[in-house]
Specification:
This protein is of the alpha+beta class and about 150 residues long. The chain has helices spanning about 5-15, 65-80, 85-100, 110-115, 125-140, and strands spanning about 30-35, 40-50, 55-60, 145-150. The radius of gyration is 14 Å and the shape is globular.
Length: about 150
């Protein structure tokens, strides 16, 4: 196994064991829930947006290591970003993990998200990695329906 792949696995395990920004955010003004029925991942995103800026974001729920790590890394990357920047990160992350389109390497926190790029080799795991991202999009758009990875 390459050193880079081992490093990526280590980062995923670290974020799974000690997720950042885990827990309910009491002063959130946007929330959304997401569910992956294939593997049972459940996530709830709490976001506090002020003047179009994500001032704080957290999550809770239960899921596999990839889903938890993705939510943890995502919350770190998006804190302090504008809603528009969050959309750009979402699109870039989607391109990274699906291999469709191009990831924007100029994004400040994109290198942290690249750790999850390896999931594109495992199509069923892509849904695990993208669930938190679809869920935060729903929260930012004030959608009340639960997000699911299935159509």
């Amino acid at each position: 196994m390459s050193d880079l792949r081992e490093l990526y696995q280590e980062v995923i395990f670290d974020h799974n064991r000690s997720p950042r920004n885990f827990g309910k955010l009491d002063d959130a003004n946007r929330t959304a829930e997401g569910y992956n029925p294939v593997c049972g991942d459940q996530v709830k995103l709490y976001v506090r947006v002020e003047d179009g800026v994500i001032k704080d974001v957290s999550f809770d729920g239960q899921g596999c290591a990839i889903s938890t790590a993705s939510a943890s890394i995502m919350t770190e990357a998006l804190k302090g970003k504008t809603e528009q920047e969050a959309e750009t990160y979402f699109k870039s992350f989607q391109a990274l993990v699906t291999g469709e389109g191009e990831a924007d390497d100029s994004l400040e926190e994109m290198f942290k998200l690249e750790v999850l790029g390896g999931v594109r080799e495992f199509p069923m795991r892509v849904k695990c990695a993208t669930l938190p991202w679809h869920t935060i999009n729903a929260a930012l758009e004030n959608k009340s329906d639960s997000v699911t990875t299935e159509k």
